[in-house]
Amino acid sequence: MGLHVDIKKTMQNFSLQVSFDMGCETLSILGASGSGKSMTLKCIAGIETPDEGRIVLDDTILFDSKQKINLLPQQRNIGYLFQNYALFPNMTVEENIAIGLKASKQEKRTLVEEKIKSFYLEGLEKKKPSQLSGGQQQRVAIARMIASNPKIIMLDEPFSALDSYLRWEMEQEILDIIETYKKPTLFVSHNRDEVYRISDLIGVIDQGRLSFVSEKKDIFENPKTFIGAVLTGCKNFTRIKKVNEYKVYAFDWQINLITKEPVSNDIQYVGIRAHHIQVIDSNEESDNTMLCTVKKIIDNTFTTIILVEGLRNSQKNGVDKQHNYGEIRLEMPKNEWEKVKGNQVKLRFIPEALLLLE
Amino acid sequence: MNISPLIISFKVACTATILTIILGIPFAWKVANMKKGKGLIDGIATMPMVLPPTIVGFFLLLLIGKNSPFGKFLLQFDITLTFTWIAAVLASVVVSFPLMYRTARGAFEAVDTNLIYAGQTLGMSNFTIFRKVVLPNTMSSILAGVVLTFARALGEFGATIMVAGNIPGRTQTISVAIYSAVQGGQREQSYAWVAVIMLISFGSIISMNWFSNREKGNSKGVV
Predict the structure, then answer these.
(1) Which residues form the signal peptide (chain A) (predicted)?
(2) pTM (global) more than 0.80
(3) Which value does ipTM take for this structure?
(4) Do A181 and A103 reside in the same domain of the chain?
(5) Range of the domain at B145
(6) Same domain as A217, residue A284
(7) How far is CA B62 from the centre of its chain?
(8) A86 contacts in B (CB within 8 Å)?
(9) Is the C or the N end of chain B the one with fewer CB within 10 Å?
């Protein structure tokens, strides 16, 4: 049971190379726009054809380049929710839902009525998509998809056309639907928060390569790669050189960093999330600390974002000079910033918060 | 005044329009979905629009004339196509085909591909998608194309006179009648036919604009 994908496809800017297995859970693919997310879904749905590889859903081979199998999208039984919902503008809500049904007229009517009810579309049966709000359009699109009874659901950036309030509401509805219909769900997005809330398993795609699939806790708390850290929202990175097993030199921050985990030879970067950086009130030099000047303070909704740069005093020809280097972004609750604010701050990167990245 | 040119013109233009719709729309759909060779096919299909109508007539004569293989084949059944109203229909079809084809193709290509993909993932056959999704959503453009086709077929002169001639009461359409009238110095008659043609053409353009405006109104607010 489940979906097995292992495909390759040459595209204009990069080659798509994706392989993963999923069972009856929700798998999210996180990636920037143009990273190959939608193309992956289109290959699975049969809208696009991979150059080579194999796609198997449950026991049906959907695509196999060696056996020359390539089922039509119509034969694949896959539910696809398009970014713009792709509702048929010439049909009413009822007609849109009924179109994918293979049943007698009588059965169709009951099924459509049932879907209208369970997706809170009562009263809108005779309306055209253009007369509906964004949220209602999405509900119709989901109802239409579920009505065709697919084996797997694929959601392509489903919230990108909605404003932030509606986004939240529809996200909850989609979670309910996933729960109710217990279908394997493949969710594609560039929004790390959505991905984190919706799914248990997360894969990261970059330049057409799906790098890994893991539990969401893992990827957010312990991303293994640079791109994984970027996509999960890490803002601060430095190139490093390994000094010893628990110590690296950070080029961009010009300090030594003590790590909690042993540093393997593949590690090239160290990252730290903006809210994990501490500001300390002390003048002594020690490991994992860095003196910085404040460059910019941004007042965010509930937090303060502070952009700082490393500061070093040097003497050249008897004149004091100041060097700035390595911009760092920190984020902290407003009241905490009030306590420590100043033109210069001393940062501490606690070893537990450092992300060791390949 | 003898109104037979009006009747012949309408008979020819209506038949030609129907034929052009039947041929042009499926052809446009095929070409719109082609992945390779689109430019070549498009070039050939558009040729009659830019060629002088006399050349179209010349090719048609080569194709259906008494000495052509097809003409000889038809002769066995005592059928001659040249200098009949059917030849006039053929001339109009060839000349107006690119108008129908290009308008329809443009409309088909403007359809959101996600609609077609959505139809496919919902299990609709490609023909059903064409009939229930593509056609209804491009109807206004297609109607505009039909009007253009009709206007062109009605005004066709060059190819028509070459393959159908100028036989009063049989193949003399309005445009050909104007030519004859002017040649014969019958100014009043030519004025009358010119007025008729201008009225019909103006009406066509107005109705075409109305169709395309309706399309804009329809698509308002559709995501």
Answers:
(1) none
(2) no
(3) 0.79
(4) yes
(5) 4-217
(6) no
(7) 21
(8) 112, 114-115, 117-118
(9) N
